[in-house]
Amino acid sequence: MRPEKSLPYSDEFKSADDYVEQLLRYVASTPVFQVLCGGVHIMDFYTSDPGLFYSVVPEDWQVFLLDRAPMELLDFLLRDDVDTPREEGRVPPPASLIQYVRDVRRFSLQRNILSRVATEKTKLPRKITMGMNIKKIHEVTQFSAYVDRLADAVSEDAPSTPITHLVDVGSGQNYLGRALASKSKAPQDSQNSSKDGRRGLRRGVVAVESKGHNIAGAKGLDMMTGVMAAPARPMRNKKLYQQMLSEKNGGAKQTEKARNRIARSWAAENTQNGDSESTAQDTELSQTPEKQQKPPSTIVADMRSRNEIAAEAYAQMQQKKDSQKEQDGQATEKTSANASATDSDNLIQYVEGRLENGDLSHVLSQVQPLRQDDDQDSDLPSSFLTVSIHSCGNLSHYGLRALELNPDVRAVAIVGCCYNLLTERLGPPTYKVPGMRPRPTLQPVNGRVMREEERRDPEGFPMSARFATYSPSEGPSEKGIRFNITARMMACQAPANWTEADSESFFTRHFYRAILQRIFLDRGVLQRVRLEGQADDEEGAAVSPIIIGSLRKACYASLSAYVRGAVAKIAAQGNGNGAASSDENAAVNAAVAEKMASLTDEDLEDYNTRYGNAQRRRELSAVWSLMAFSAGVVESAIVADRWQYLREQQAKGLVRDCWVESVFSYDQSPRNLVVVGIRGEKVE
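That's the Methyltransferase domain-containing protein sequence above. Prediction below.
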């Protein structure tokens, strides 16, 4: 189960520890990397002259970068052999840039999926993939098979406490949990046996989700796909119900036809309950209206919702089924048509709640022991494997810390995502890059103001003590590894998957946004901000951003359409749209509406002429490409930090083994690195 390497590092490194040591030194003491990974922002690109490109890109790189079209530059950064001779007549790459490309490539963790994972013959039934797109099908298919094998391996190592439940943190629509539940074989399946002949156990799925509407939607999909049995829906006669209410409220008396309908309904109910004598009597009464008796008082309007009635009916059905099993001494024989539903009807349990740390005791305490049909397994203690696909931000940290904080959690397997949502354990970076003045770290003027205690969150990045306390022996640097939100957001990019059309699309969006920031500055909507004591010039100054969000597709047709659409959206947002206070947000909206009102199409055309030529656009695309390429090291550092955290638990004896490997194809799902940890305590 375990890969040969505990981290998928380049073969240039001797070991995982050697890789981590050199990675820390590079991240903490390389100025160019620090500039491109958090030192610049695309919105500041045109707020100074001659432009950000000339102040952040090394001078000997500039001519080469401007000589390469966007896709040519991406090929050079990601795919080309940088040691081969260049074509004649083109500007050759400088030696320092070649070395930088080599360094970023070797410090970026290898993302190719291992053959033993890629060649697994797994395919989910079509009904289980209901609601998934192609990307999600690939992820769920690959990861459900991986988790299944991991659970089997952990269970084989400790047969007395096998994995009985899979806890999916941040389950969403529970696509993964549904696939895992469908893989839990029926007890009579001869293939579900371990090597020593012991029959394999069915595993429950605990889906932990903070949003109730996601849980409701997931339960609906569970029933539609047959993973869980659908509750019986009671049949009600709406017209008869309305007539009964009318009579109760003093309305018109029931007609003879209505009385006959009531009697027939009562007769049908008694037939379902097996009361044939009462049925015959009521049927006879229904044919003689003059002797008809009033229906029993138990027939009353049920004012509960359909879901509540259905849930009660389903519970009664299950109770009756269990009672019948006890009387018969054996389980009722099931037909193949509904085997999927009846075999898995108790495999998925939903727990609604928001995790604030890795302590899952409040979740695990709600888990019911999974009933096994074999008596020898009926008293097995619950044992958990915590999993997640693309758990956002700190949720990945909570899943990994569950191994440390919950004794019943035997293993974890977490695929992280959305690094921009991570909080900062050490606070924002304040490193001083040689050749550049320190620039203030700014919050959007119409965004949420970050509380100071959230800027130093003990649950945030980095997790490991090694990353949190690292300090290079040479060069100026602060203690610990830090990445600001810009660097972490760029780590979510996948430049190797960019096509020419994709590149042109988002480069155009960034180009429009950078020009709009310059317009805001020129028209007094925003002001330059400097650190205290700095000179009153453009160098070292920054311009606070304004959050715009998404715009309609038509707004990206031209610069004029973009600016008009963005201004209209900001001006119409109203007060308190994610701001620290409604007054502050109202002031921003009013300033945008007032100071942008006189902007003419001629003004916009002038901005387009000044900044929209091919060279200025290529300056922007070159820097953005370098930022996305360099951020591969940021993601690698975040993943290595999580692995290092488990290594530190291993030194304490809590973790027996831990590793990182790719579980998805990068071209289909770029966030494809799973962090695995297995509890090391000896189980008697």
